[in-house]
């Protein structure tokens, strides 16, 4: 930095040392003036340009960090969704197993209930059959008695009537 400062102070002295231009070329004073101009320009613009450059770098870095955070968040959500899918598969498998067991239990219960109903129906059929037989026996006995009592030709005493009825019933 010190060398730059000394050159900056010595540069105007070198510019005044140029000749009148009689056959001499003024390239050296022009270069010195350019260097002085560049030095002043650098002195005035360097900090804002550096600040803008670093600001741009920081803005890009911040956007990159934000994008990386979003990527990490989306990856975390993806992993969470994958875990939920795996849990759902396990739960679905458990539910399927439970439904199969429940179906088996219901089939056994339905079969048992059906067997009970069949037994009840068979018992009801036997009772109905016995009832109809008794009804038929009563009808036959009633018919025989009506015939006997309707005709005067046949007079039977009580013992013969009981024997006749017993023969019809059996």
Would you give an account of this structure?
This is ATP synthase subunit b. Its main location: membrane. GO terms for molecular function: hydrolase activity; proton-transporting ATP synthase activity, rotational mechanism. Keywords: ATP synthesis, Cell membrane, CF(0), Hydrogen ion transport, Hydrolase, Ion transport, Membrane, Transmembrane, Transmembrane helix, Transport. The chain has helices spanning 2-16, 27-150, 158-169. The chain has 170 residues and is mostly helical. The chain has one domain. The radius of gyration is 62 Å and the shape is rod-shaped. 1% of the residues are buried. The model has no long low-confidence stretch (mean pLDDT 85).
Quickly list its features.
hydrogen ion transport; hydrolase; 89% helix; 170 residues; hydrolase activity; mainly alpha; ion transport; cell membrane
Average pLDDT: 85
In DSSP terms (H or I, runs of 4 or more residues), the helix count works out at 3
How would you sum up the major sheet? Answer: none
Low-confidence stretches: none
Structural class: mainly alpha
Terminal CA distance reads 144 Å
Apparent shape: rod-shaped
* Overall tally of structural domains: 1
User: Order of helices and strands, N to C?
Assistant: HHH
DSSP strand content: under 5%
What's the topology here?
Blueprint: H1 2-16, H2 27-150, H3 158-169
Helix pairs in contact: 1-2
Main location: membrane
Membrane topology: Single-pass membrane protein
Keywords: ATP synthesis, Cell membrane, CF(0), Hydrogen ion transport, Hydrolase, Ion transport, Membrane, Transmembrane, Transmembrane helix, Transport
